[in-house]
Amino acid sequence: EDKVVQSPLSLVVHEGDTVTLNCSYEVTNFRSLLWYKQEKKAPTFLFMLTSSGIEKKSGRLSSILDKKELFSILNITATQTGDSAVYLCAATTNYGGSQGNLIFGKGTKLSVKP
Amino acid sequence: DADVTQTPRNRITKTGKRIMLECSQTKGHDRMYWYRQDPGLGLRLIYYSFDVKDINKGEISDGYSVSRQAQAKFSLSLESAIPNQTALYFCATSDFLAGPYNEQFFGPGTRLTVL
Fold first, then answer.
1. Burial of residue A40 (number of CB atoms within 10 Å: 0-12, 13-18, 19+)
2. Are B82 and B91 in contact (CB under 8 A)?
C-alpha cells in the first residue's frame, strides 16, 4: 500500500528559529514529491521535486529530495509568525489509473511563537 | 476571481438528508478531484475525473457519488448523509497535459456538518 509519512506531526518554535520538516514515502512507481502550505483553508502549492539532490528554493523556504532513501525535507529559515500553518507533503505515482494522483501525508502543524 | 470555487462554503445538515457540494473552475484544466480532510488525517481522495466521460473512485468513495456535468463543473453528492461524513471537503484541479505529475490547485473548501 502506498504511503507518505510526515514528521513531526506538530512543532512549536520561536521567531527566528530554523525548522526542518520531514517526509518519507513508499509509493509504487514514484514520479514526484510536492509540498503544500495550508493556513486557514485551501492548501497552496510550494514546491515540486522530481530529481534527487536538486534543491528548490523560494525565499526562506527550501526543499530537497532523496530518491535513494525515499524522503524529502522542507527547511524554513528565520521563521516568522506568518509561517504558522500545516505543511502537507504528497507523492505522485505513475501507476495505472492513478497516474498523477496525490498521496498525502497527515501533515506537520508548525506554530511559530513571537 | 478565484480559479476554483466551491459552493456552499459551510453547510449543516441532518442525518439521512441528501446533499450536493458543487465545484467550478475557470482554469481550463481537464482533471478534477474531490478530497475530504479530517483532523490529523491529511487529505483523502474520494473521486476523480479525467474528463466529462470519466469518473474514478478514490480511496474513500463509499457513501459518495459524483457527476462531471461539464469540463468546468464537478459535483459531489452524499445520498444519505451520516455524522461521520462531517469533514472539510476540497475540490481540486490539475492540467494533465501540461504535466501529469504537477501540482493540483485547490478550492477554498466546504465545511460540512452532519447532525
1. exposed
2. no
Is residue B41 within 8 A of residue A109, CB to CB? The reply is: no
CB B113 within 8 A of CB B12: yes
- End-to-end CA, chain A: 41
- Are A80 and A14 in contact, with CB atoms under 8 Å apart? no
When computed from its CA atoms, the radius of gyration of chain B, rounded to whole angstroms, is 13
Closest by Cβ to A41, choosing from B56, B100, B108 = B108
The residue of chain B nearest to residue A109, with distances taken between CA atoms, is B40
pLDDT tens, residue by residue, A26-75 = 998 899 999 999 998 899 999 999 988 889 999 999 999 999 999 999 99
Q: Which amino acid is at B87?
A: A
> Do residue B43 and residue A97 have CB atoms under 8 angstroms apart?
no
Sign of the dihedral defined by the CA atoms of residues A19, A105, B37, A43, in that order? positive
Across the interface, of B42, B45, B103, the residue whose CB is closest to A101 is B45
